[in-house]
TrEMBL record:
Pfam families: RsmJ. The gene is rlmJ. It is an enzyme of class 2 (transferase). It comes from Thiorhodococcus fuscus. Monomer. This is Ribosomal RNA large subunit methyltransferase J. HAMAP family: 23SrRNA_methyltr_J.
Length: 284
């Protein structure tokens, strides 16, 4: 049974990191004229209403896009992300918030393609309602862990895959590693972006996840953002993006972006929250 609904979390600090990095990745890849394919194994509903019941119930977006939006003019690095939100909200604000498929759609070009997978019945209906009219978009109601490798290599064989499961069940961590191994075997030149949560000490599985990824690829670029210090039991204090085959010098771009996000989104002011951008290598 799938219980996770992204509407409760849309626009939170983890979405800001994920969608900010996704924006920079797509902008870098589209700087070259060749067409590309964007794949999203866990696409969600595509578009979220931050004035709606789900977002209001948790209020998570308040400390995410809610904090960042007033600072958008000081963050030119993320102009593409902010412009996408602004276009969705012609009367101002950020209440209509783009999920990864909608954001990608806005950043991609007429000759690029999007392949989106979503397993939850009502979420895939929302996704269809939000994006179906776009001829570049192909939506699959299926398990993204098996669907992503099965659909590879894409045509054209240039592109980016986002792997963004809920991690509500512990098995998701091992599934992600298995999914990357199978996908990378079929499409070794693809760019992969894997989102993961940073949880309280007793529950944090991020190191296990990174080691699992390094079983099939020689190195990953890791970008992590924490908005408060890690404690033993507090839930999600931060999150990370693990990138396989990122564009050349992408680490330098992240080293510009991440401190800005950390300064904007920190909640404890103790300096214990923060950011890191680092290459992790497989050990022989
Ligand atoms: N990528 C989206 C974004 O950034 O806007 C958010 C995705 S949300 C974190 C995870 C989604 O994965 C949920 O919509 C959930 O229904 C879906 N899901 C859970 N298990 C899945 C599976 N095995 N295959 C495909 N989708 C799945």
């Amino acid at each position: 049974m799938l219980s996770y609904l992204h509407g409760f979390h849309a626009g939170n600090h983890a979405d800001v990191l994920k969608h900010g990095v996704l924006t920079l990745l797509i902008e870098t890849l589209t700087a070259k004229p060749k067409p590309l394919v964007y794949l999203d194994s866990h696409a969600g509903a595509g578009l979220y209403d931050l004035n709606g019941e789900q977002a209001a119930k948790t209020g998570e977006f308040v400390d995410g896009i809610g904090r960042l939006w007033p600072m958008r003019h000081d963050l030119p690095e993320l102009a593409g992300y902010f412009d996408s939100i602004a276009t969705l909200n012609p009367n101002g604000g950020h209440a209509r918030y783009p999920g990864s498929p909608e954001l990608a759609r806005r950043l991609l070009r007429p000759n690029d393609r999007l392949i989106l997978m979503e397993l939850h019945k009502t979420e895939v209906q929302g996704l269809r309602a939000a994006l179906d009219g776009d001829p570049r978009v192909h939506i699959h109601h299926r398990n993204g862990f098996e669907g992503l490798p099965a659909l590879l290599p894409p045509k054209p064989a240039r592109g980016l895959a986002l792997i963004d499961p809920p991690y509500e069940v512990k098995t998701d961590y091992a599934e992600v590693a298995r999914c990357l191994a199978a996908a990378h075997a079929r499409w070794p030149t693809g760019v992969y972006a894997i989102w993961y949560p940073r949880l309280g000490l007793d529950r944090d599985q991020s190191e296990t996840l990174l080691q699992g990824l390094l079983d099939s690829v020689p190195r990953v670029l890791v970008a992590e953002l924490s908005v408060r210090a890690q404690t033993r039991d507090f839930g999600m204090h931060g999150s990370g993006m693990a990138l396989v085959n990122p564009p050349w010098q992408f680490d330098e771009r992240l080293k510009t972006l991440l401190p800005q996000l950390a300064a904007a989104l920190t909640l404890d002011g103790t300096g214990a929250s923060g950011w890191r951008v680092a290459w992790r290598e497989a050990t022989a």
